[in-house]
Amino acid sequence: MWKVSKMEFSHVSVLLKETVDSLDVKKGGIYVDCTCGGAGHSREILRRLEGTGRLIAIDRDPEAIEVIKERIGGEKNVTVVHSAFSELSSILSDLGIDKVDGVMADLGVSSHQMDKADRGFSIHNEAMLDMRMSKEGMSAHDVINTFSEGELIRIFRLYGEEKFAPRIARSIVQLRQQKPIDTTTELAEIVKNSIPAAARRTGHHPARKTFQSVRIFINNETGQLEDTIGEMFSCLRKDGRLSIITFHSLEDRIVKNAFREFCKGCECPRSAPVCICGKTPEGELPFRKILPSEKEIEENPRSRSATLRCIKKIR
């Protein structure tokens, strides 16, 4: 575990070597880590740059930013930016950067965020319901205690793929009429009691999908990715690479479909004698996807659901 003067911030970077390998880091290149977190991937990128080039380290979590500054902020070729990666185009423009050689994003919640009880991400640690990555704006407490039953059902279904969403939402609305639902453990217990006994014996905590859905919603995780993945790709120069690690099917589907579009060529009917659409592929896939090895999963169980996808810009 790494320690810094202001706080402890531990995080095991998932698919570390595979992700940095996929970026094909070149000396003198410019690289962006959109979700720098504990700086694990960034430090490996810097090691391969060997003091050349430039790294832009971005994170929207103010606690992460303090750690990033302490760990790599002193390097002369590092720029640390406190922002959501949805501001990528503006960030690069403000820095006078037109194109970069590589962009990466690890879309998982950091171990620090999960394990630090007062952030309210964890099912297992009692804390006030929060889950805000930026520590600003609407919290999980606001959603659970003020949203209508119908709105809760939609969130649980859409972002958690929770088949018991109506039962969970109904229980939440009924119980919050007696008193506000304040803590993570209160919510976890309500969810557990709302699910049939047989469904609780799946190996996962019964509240996992509900917590995931609320976290995704309040942090606009899928919306931010959908809105920004095109910018990530467009800011690459020719032969540049974009590598993204996802942790659930919703995010992975967004990445897979976007990459497929970037790689799509002529769309003319097969019967057409010549191409008239003029569409040519902008990217190619160095590989389909990479999953964690059994060894990595054993050493870091939170890597189990990770998927790495990469695309190379070819024109």
Can you tell me about this structure?
With about 325 residues, this protein is α/β, with parallel strands linked by helices. Helices cover about 40% and strands about 15% of the residues. It contains 13 helices and seven strands. The chain has helices at about 15-25, 40-50, 60-70, 90-95, 110-115, 140-145, 150-160, 165-175, 185-195, 210-220, 220-235, 250-260, 295-300, and strands at about 30-35, 55-60, 80, 100-105, 235-245, 285, 305-315. A seven-stranded mixed beta sheet has the order 3-2-1-4-5-7-6, sandwiched between helices. Helix 3 links the parallel strand 2 and strand 3. Helix 8 (about 165-175) crosses helix 9. The chain is globular. The two termini are about 40 Å apart.
Summed up:
With about 325 residues, the chain is of the alpha/beta class. The chain is built from 13 helices and 7 strands.
Give a topology summary:
Layout: H1 16-23, E1 30-33, H2 40-49, E2 54-59, H3 62-71, E3 78-82, H4 88-94, E4 100-106, H5 111-115, H6 140-146, H7 149-160, H8 165-176, H9 184-194, H10 208-218, H11 221-234, E5 236-246, H12 249-262, E6 283-284, H13 294-299, E7 307-313
Parallel strand pairs: 1-2, 1-4, 2-3, 4-5
Antiparallel strand pairs: 5-7, 6-7
Helix pairs in contact: 1-2, 7-8, 7-10, 8-9, 11-12
Morphology call:
globular
Beta-sheet strand percentage? Answer: 5-15%
**Averaging pLDDT over every residue, what do you get?**
92
Q: How can the largest sheet be summarized?
A: 7 strands, mixed
The percentage helix is: 40-55%
Order of strands in the sheet with most strands: 3-2-1-4-5-7-6
Taking Cα atoms only, what radius of gyration do you get, to the nearest Å?
Answer: 21 Å
Q: How large is the count of helical segments?
A: 13
* Strand count: 7
**Which structural class do you get from the secondary structure elements?**
alpha/beta
Low-pLDDT runs of 5+ residues are 1-7
